[in-house]
Specification:
Blueprint: H1 2-36, H2 39-56, H3 58-61, H4 93-129, H5 131-145, H6 149-160, H7 164-174, H8 176-190, H9 194-201, H10 206-214, H11 219-242, H12 254-261, H13 270-297
C-alpha cells in the first residue's frame, strides 16, 4: 500500500512537472511575442543594450582613460576634443561617464539582485512553513519597513563606510521587505495546488519543494519587480555617492560625478548636466522595458 501511494505520488509529480514545463514554455513564447510588439519596451531595451555595451567595452569606446589629466583643459566646455567637457583636473567627462557606467550599472544590478535572492529565500520560508517562522520573518520585515529605504541605506553606509561592496549591501537590505511580502503572497496562492501535494506525498524535501516546484511558478511578478528595482537602485546608489557615502573618488561613478560638480553648477553647468542626463536616460530606458515586461506578463493582456 505504501509503495502504491509512493508510486502514485511520483506519477502525479512527474505529470505535474511536465505540464508545468509545457505551460511555462508556452507562456514564455507568448510573453516574448507580446513584448516584441511593444515599441516603447523595445526602444527602452535597445537604448539600455547600447548603454551597457558602451560601458562594458569602455577601453574601446572611451576616447580617454578615466583618470587621464590634461591640465591645459581644466573646466573646458564641450568641444570636438572633449564632447562633454572636462572637470577640475582636466579629465574627460565623457570617458569618465563611460567607465563610471560599469560601477553604476553593477551597483543597480547587484543591489537589486542580492536583495531579490534574500527576499526569495525569506519569502519562501515565510509562505511555505507559516506559523512561527512566518511571524518572525514578517515582524522583522515590519521593523525594516518602518525605516525609509534611503535612510536605512544611509545608516548602513555610515556604519560600514564607503566602497563598492558596502554600498551594494546598503542598497539591497532596504529592498528585502517588499520582496519578501511579494513572494510570500505568491506562495500562499500556490502552495496547496495539486502538484505541490504530489511533491509532498513523494516525500520531497521542503527546500526542493520550495525552490524546484513552487518558486518557478511565481517568476512573473519577481521578474517585473527585479527589472523595475534596478532603475531605483541606480538612483539610490547615485544618491549615496552624491552625499559622499557610496563609491569613493577617484573612482568614476555617476553619482560621485554629480557630487564633484555641484559646487560649480553655475560656472560650469556641464559638470552636472551630462551625468544627470546619463542617469535619467538609463533609468528611463529600464522603466520603459519594465513597463512593457509587466504588460506582457499580465494575464489580462492574453488573447
Amino acid at each position: 500500500m505504501a509503495e502504491a501511494t509512493k508510486q502514485l505520488g511520483q506519477n502525479g509529480l512527474n505529470g505535474a512537472n511536465v505540464k508545468s514545463k509545457k505551460k511555462r514554455n508556452g507562456t514564455g513564447s507568448q510573453v516574448i511575442r507580446r513584448l516584441s510588439k511593444n515599441r516603447l519596451a523595445m526602444f527602452g531595451l535597445i537604448v539600455l543594450a547600447i548603454i551597457v555595451l558602451i560601458c562594458v567595452f569602455a577601453p574601446i569606446t572611451a576616447p580617454y582613460g578615466p583618470n587621464d589629466y590634461d591640465l591645459q583643459m581644466i573646466y573646458a566646455t564641450p568641444c570636438l576634443k572633449h564632447p562633454f567637457g572636462t572637470d577640475a583636473l582636466g579629465r574627460d567627462i565623457l570617458s569618465r561617464l563611460i567607465y563610471g557606467g560599469r560601477y553604476s550599472l553593477a551597483l543597480g544590478l547587484c543591489g537589486a539582485g542580492f536583495g531579490m535572492i534574500a527576499g526569495c529565500v525569506l519569502g519562501c520560508m515565510a509562505g511555505y512553513f507559516g506559523g512561527i517562522c512566518d511571524n518572525l520573518i514578517m515582524r522583522a520585515c515590519d521593523v525594516l519597513s518602518a525605516i525609509p529605504g534611503q535612510l536605512l541605506s544611509i545608516v548602513i553606509s555610515c556604519v560600514l563606510g564607503g566602497g563598492f561592496f558596502n554600498t551594494v549591501l546598503a542598497l539591497c537590505i532596504g529592498g528585502i521587505p517588499g520582496k519578501v511580502r511579494l513572494l510570500r503572497a505568491q506562495i500562499l496562492s500556490v502552495r496547496n495546488v495539486e502538484y505541490i501535494e504530489a511533491a509532498q506525498s513523494y516525500n520531497c524535501s521542503s527546500a526542493k519543494t520550495m525552490f524546484q516546484h513552487i518558486l518557478p511558478n511565481t517568476y512573473a511578478p519577481l521578474l517585473v519587480n527585479l527589472t523595475m528595482e534596478i532603475g531605483g537602485t541606480i538612483m539610490a546608489a547615485a544618491g549615496l555617492s552624491f552625499i559622499g557615502l557610496g563609491v569613493q573618488p577617484p573612482t568614476p561613478e555617476w553619482g560621485a560625478m554629480l557630487s564633484a560638480g555641484r559646487d560649480y553648477i553655475r560656472q560650469y553647468p556641464h559638470l552636472i548636466v551630462f551625468p544627470g542626463l546619463v542617469i535619467m536616460v538609463t533609468v528611463y530606458a529600464i522603466n520603459l522595458f519594465g513597463d512593457g515586461l509587466r504588460d506582457a506578463l499580465d494575464p489580462k493582456m492574453k488573447h
